């Protein structure tokens, strides 16, 4: 089989310690006939077993390139350190890095707009980037990101230097105008992103998404092939639980943002209803997010629902082993549901692989709800009535949990096996190369 050299572009460092369960490691581990070099746009050193050759650009470099003579970009070759480089386990949290992270996490669209212009006006060290690309000699560019002016500009630069076709992946709502936001700066940024994607789309030979609706929209808009792409999982039927706990244990692990906490509160209300005459179900919540007073009242009554704080990925595996149903929730309110509509969280695959039954609550047009409902691999509820009805059914018939535990593992085997996903990805890469460079 032909070896394909892939130039990977992402926003964050590829670090399995800081970002466990990331898509890159999931897709590229033990991927035969693929060689990777990686361009990324953040602080920190990489740590993974798939790649040794990197080009790094950071906010700080871009800022200095504007106010000084130095241009942005450094080559990092960690092959001499070995793939298990323990020195890369943390990011040097400089003052500049701290500021940038606060801007990324803030709701201030104005500050995000300023950062956009930093990446538009900053000067890349093109000579050094050319040296990096010419040394690696890529066949294809694979860009795994949310579309931004920052990354679209870099995509065009990589294309100009290498001449390689681009395959893009997004898992978020990056382009649609079907969204509710009252900030004028949000809309300035949204139209800037749309313009950047429009400008770059002619270089895309294929676009991966995790939403059928988004895939159809992009195929029609940009006249390019689109395809669904999800994180892979490992089917292990021995993990399926043969016994159901008394009371039945539901577990949620994740953030509470974008209205997810309100969805969890709705579930708690349904649990309280079936627990009136005795405790039949309980919900454990694992999150690093701190609860507000209102959230504590709703999500930690220590009878029906228990707030457990944060947990590591390894700790969560043990939690799943002692649980019956794993939850994935999204917002049901009109504003937040549009933001996350095209998102298929990587944690959904972790839930399906857990050995537990899976329960998903979200908008009926949400990507995860559509996919899992179509495959009948999870309890899927899209409104209050369905939530209360499903919780009642589970409380009355525990065998449903065993049925959906098997359904979840079947979904991993049929639609999310790493071998099949790598085979598809390799085939797509070959097809793009066979069609010639655009």
From TrEMBL:
Classification via SUPFAM superfamilies: UDP-Glycosyltransferase/glycogen phosphorylase
InterPro entries assigned to the protein according to its UniProt record, in alphabetical order: YkvP/CgeB_Glyco_trans-like
Domain of life: Bacteria
Domain Spore protein YkvP/CgeB glycosyl transferase-like, residue spans: 301-417
Name of the molecule in the record: Glycosyltransferase family 1 protein
Organism from which the protein derives: Candidatus Fimicola merdigallinarum
């Amino acid at each position: 089989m032909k070896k394909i050299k892939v130039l990977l572009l992402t926003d964050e460092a590829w670090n399995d310690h800081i970002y466990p369960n990331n898509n890159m490691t999931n897709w590229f581990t033990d991927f035969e006939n693929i060689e990777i070099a990686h361009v990324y746009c953040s602080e920190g050193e990489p740590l993974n077993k798939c790649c040794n050759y990197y080009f790094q650009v950071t906010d700080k470099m871009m800022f200095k390139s504007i106010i000084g003579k130095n241009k942005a970009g450094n080559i990092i070759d960690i092959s001499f350190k070995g793939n298990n480089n323990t020195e890369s386990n943390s990011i040097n949290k400089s003052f500049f890095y701290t500021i940038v992270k606060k801007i990324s996490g803030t709701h201030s669209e104005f500050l995000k707009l300023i950062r956009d212009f930093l990446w538009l006006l900053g000067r890349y060290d093109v000579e050094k980037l050319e040296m990096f690309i010419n040394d690696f000699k890529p066949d294809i560019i694979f860009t795994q990101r949310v579309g931004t002016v920052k990354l679209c500009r870099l995509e065009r630069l990589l294309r100009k230097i290498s001449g390689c076709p681009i395959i893009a992946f997004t898992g978020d709502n990056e382009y649609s105008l079907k969204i509710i936001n009252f900030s004028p700066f949000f809309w300035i940024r949204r139209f800037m992103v749309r313009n950047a994607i429009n400008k770059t789309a002619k270089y895309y030979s294929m676009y991966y998404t995790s939403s059928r609706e988004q895939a159809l929209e992009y195929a029609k808009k940009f006249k390019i092939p689109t395809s669904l792409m999800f994180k892979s999982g490992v089917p292990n039927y021995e993990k399926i639980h043969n016994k159901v706990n008394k009371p039945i244990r539901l577990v949620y692990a994740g953030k509470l943002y974008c209205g997810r906490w309100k969805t969890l509160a709705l579930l708690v209300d349904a649990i309280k209803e079936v627990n009136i005459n005795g405790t039949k179900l309980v919900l454990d919540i694992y999150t690093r997010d701190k609860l507000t007073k209102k959230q504590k009242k709703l999500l930690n009554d220590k009878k029906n629902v228990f707030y457990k704080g944060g947990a590591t990925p390894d700790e969560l595996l043990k939690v799943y082993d002692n649980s019956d149903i794993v939850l994935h929730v999204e917002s049901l309110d009109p504003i937040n549901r549009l933001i996350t509509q095209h998102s298929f969280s990587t944690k959904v695959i972790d839930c399906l692989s857990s050995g537990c039954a899976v329960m998903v609550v979200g908008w009926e047009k949400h990507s995860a709800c559509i996919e899992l409902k179509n495959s009948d691999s999870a309890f899927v509820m899209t409104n209050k009535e369905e939530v209360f009805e499903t919780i009642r059914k589970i409380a009355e018939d525990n065998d449903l949990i065993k049925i959906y535990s098997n359904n979840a593992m079947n979904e991993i085997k049929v639609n999310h096996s790493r071998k099949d996903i790598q085979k598809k990805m390799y085939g797509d890469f070959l097809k793009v190369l066979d069609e010639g460079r655009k």
